């Protein structure tokens, strides 16, 4: 499914949460996810049973930890199926409360992905939005990257760059975050460097 060099993947991957029988364990750092209630299991994009979960009205939480390290570079990616884009919804958000070192990937009411980074409580100029909307009821690969050396923010949909921006203040702070949750995903990857080959175009 993912075409990565295993050595470089192991060196840069900080968390990996696949869904298996509604159990979402972190295969890298042990930061397993918990749900606020019993999750609804769903078929994944290959029609496998119990390899995806629906969190409409639910959420998954990751434990308090330091997730963003490695000099500011990062990649997050997930397979998602959006049912309804009538309101803002989040794929993930890690932070310490409203406007406190938040890193989030969300969808607008028009199904446009938006990647946002707060440095402390500063968000101005720290976001990038997609020009391509996600289709409802279709599995889609979404990724967001930060390359600290060029202050470049990018969003990818199905491996195609659909959003470009520049980081104007700074990368995510290397701090422990306690409010960490996910919306509806099949699996989610968290890297501490841009993905291979810049790197989202290789997902």
The main pleated sheet reads as: 7 strands, antiparallel
The number of distinct helices, counting runs of at least 4 residues, comes to 1
- Give the proportion of residues in helices: under 10%
The chain-level mean pLDDT equals 76
Estimated share of beta-strand residues: 35-45%
**Which geometry do the CA atoms define?**
globular
Measure the end-to-end span: 9 Å
- How many DSSP E strands? 16
Order of helices and strands: HEEEEEEEEEEEEEEEE
| Class inferred from helices and paired strands | mainly beta
The value of Rg in angstroms is 15 Å
> Can you tell me the residue ranges where pLDDT is under 50 for at least 5 consecutive residues?
1-10, 196-203
| Spatial strand order of the main sheet | 2-1-16-7-12-13-14
Protein model, in words:
By secondary structure, the chain is mainly beta. Helix content is 3%, strand content 39%. The protein is globular and about 45 Å long. It starts with 5 loop residues before the first helix and ends in a 12-residue tail after the last strand.
Features:
mainly beta; 203 residues; disordered N terminus; 7-stranded antiparallel β-sheet; disordered C terminus
Question: Layout of helices and strands, plus pairs?
Answer:
Layout: H1 6-12, E1 13-20, E2 23-24, E3 34-35, E4 40-42, E5 52-54, E6 60-62, E7 74-81, E8 89-95, E9 103-107, E10 113-117, E11 127-129, E12 139-147, E13 152-157, E14 160-166, E15 179-182, E16 187-191
Antiparallel strand pairs: 1-2, 1-16, 3-6, 4-5, 6-15, 7-12, 7-16, 8-9, 8-15, 9-10, 10-11, 12-13, 13-14
């Amino acid at each position: 499914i993912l075409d990565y060099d295993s050595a470089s993947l192991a060196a840069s991957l900080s968390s990996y949460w696949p869904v298996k029988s509604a159990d979402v364990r972190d295969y890298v750092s042990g930061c397993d996810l918990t749900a606020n209630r019993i999750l609804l299991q769903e078929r994944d994009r290959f029609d496998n049973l119990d390899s995806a979960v629906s969190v409409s009205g639910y959420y998954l939480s990751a434990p308090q930890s330091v997730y963003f390290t490695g000099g500011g570079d990062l990649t997050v990616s997930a397979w998602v199926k959006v049912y309804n884009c009538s309101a803002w919804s989040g794929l993930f958000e890690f932070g310490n409360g409203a406007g406190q070192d938040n890193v989030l990937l969300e969808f607008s009411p028009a199904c446009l992905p938006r990647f946002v980074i707060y440095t402390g409580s500063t968000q101005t100029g720290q976001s990038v939005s997609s020009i391509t909307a996600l289709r409802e009821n279709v599995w889609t690969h979404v990724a967001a990257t930060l390359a600290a050396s060029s202050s470049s923010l990018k969003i990818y949909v199905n491996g195609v760059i659909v959003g470009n921006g520049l980081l104007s203040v700074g990368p995510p702070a290397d701090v422990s975050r306690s409010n960490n949750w996910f919306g509806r995903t099949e699996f989610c990857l968290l890297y501490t460097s841009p993905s291979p080959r810049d790197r989202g175009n290789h997902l």
